[in-house]
Amino acid sequence: MERLDNRITRLFGIRYPIISGGMVWCSGAKLAAAVSNAGGLGLIGAGSLKPDLLREHIVKCRELTKEPFGVNVPLMSPYSAELMEVVIREKVPVVFTSAGNPKLWTDRLHENGIKVAHVVSSSKFALKAQQAGVDAVVAEGFEAGGHNGREETTTMVLVPSVKEVIDLPLIAAGGIATGGAMLACFALGAEGVQVGSRFAVSYESSASLEFKTLCTTLNEGDTMLSLKKISPTRLVRNRLFEQIDSAEQAGASKEELQEILGRGKAQQGIFYGDLENGELEIGQVSSIIRDIPTAAEIVERMMSEFEQEISQLRSLV
Amino acid sequence: MERLDNRITRLFGIRYPIISGGMVWCSGAKLAAAVSNAGGLGLIGAGSLKPDLLREHIVKCRELTKEPFGVNVPLMSPYSAELMEVVIREKVPVVFTSAGNPKLWTDRLHENGIKVAHVVSSSKFALKAQQAGVDAVVAEGFEAGGHNGREETTTMVLVPSVKEVIDLPLIAAGGIATGGAMLACFALGAEGVQVGSRFAVSYESSASLEFKTLCTTLNEGDTMLSLKKISPTRLVRNRLFEQIDSAEQAGASKEELQEILGRGKAQQGIFYGDLENGELEIGQVSSIIRDIPTAAEIVERMMSEFEQEISQLRSLV
After folding, report:
1. Which superfamily does B13-207+286-314 belong to?
2. Segment B111-143, tens digit of pLDDT
3. Can you give the pTM of this predicted structure?
4. I need a surface site. Which of A129, A198, B160, B239 has the fewest CB within 10 A?
5. How far is residue B184 CA from its own chain's centroid?
């Protein structure tokens, strides 16, 4: 298919409604540009970037692609205000906000001609995002890697729940690595998908080869939602996870868990490849990820599977 | 649609690939017969039945329908062997086994001309079920109500994972209450759906009106997976849940949790309607269930939504 025409592709000016998630230590300029060049929307993940480094990634991304791309700004970042100033000054066309109040920045971003999508884990937050005036909503389910909602609602239940309360175009996230899962989300009411794990394990992802290779060997049950007393996060069950889990089972306090977790553990694990002591954030769907293709290959595969699945379903009626 | 022709409808001799789950205190003869009369496959849930009562339900079900129906036998029931003898003596056409080893009964059931499906929560168990010679596999995700797998794999991830390792017809379960979700599961590789919560909250369900009415008011996050140290079970967050949860947070042992849970709490809650002190088993998808229709109405709605969604997706390519 040359282009899929719907509200998401029209909103962002892209060909395919596939968005790469803004993943810490994975989503730099290289991955974002590759996804955008392939017809999707690449996001630079600002969660692990200081403002100056974000600016460098934006400049670099512009050199690598002429297509629209975006930046994901987690509003809980200590630098969120400065990151937003960079995004506005650099006239990035799209911003995805997450982990915070969508009212904070939406108007200011709109005044600067920037499209805004907000990531939510419940229909209550989706409604708030719509009221804040965002252009699209991302509904991310329990199966997603990294930071996650407290209600543990899965993509299968969350997407139709959000669809019921908003009119805005809806992007599904969590558990999506194939065109079949993309089509499943469309059947649930989504018009686009945000894909994390699959792009984290791509050639252009900034993650270490050690981390990517590990992810291609994970099985069901090898990631679990952890750190529920701090901020629920899906992690690979490595040595660090087991330490946290034992402490949680024994009723450890938030402070005790924070001490075990320490600082910089996501960088240590994902970026530097310390697979035992690092914080390894990846989604459940890693259990079906078995190779490290380019971002372009991922987009092509997903769109071709998507079309093939539609033909098969069509024959049912 | 008059009939959907695929491996699941052919296997069971039914018109629509919609199976009602064998839910304790909900799935008696009345519900099973209503689902079968509507063109699906109704299951009598033997988990809350002693052998004599199961026989009564089977006899009653035969009076209420001429269509095929089945019995779900949880293999961890203390009566599982006697329940199986009843099923074989009464020549029930279909048995769904769960919570145990599929090798135990499959051959014996087959020798008696009974079709066998086995419920799993992982692709590893799915492969074992296929090796045991079952006729179909049910893959049930984390969002499902009641007893659940330890690996917490969601329907969105589990269904394609199981599809990858087995050739048998696959039935998806967990989070499915609409034709849209049914189609989503088909896009993931399923050929049928097992629907629990939606039929638990139907006119013919044996659950108390108090329980059904409560379920129509639940929101996202109102059920949680609990009792992980005993046997993971999705429960409504009522007073009993909070007692269990506080104990779990404080590091309670399996024995301490068992004492809080006590006995007969599912009956107390679901059947007798003690909403605060009973064990209320229902899935996440209760958050979009807002009425108490007949089973026939549920089957009709799902099939009509299923067809409508296919037409909409077809226009995308």
Report:
1. Aldolase class I (3.20.20.70)
2. 999 999 999 999 999 999 999 999 999 999 999
3. 0.97
4. B239
5. 18
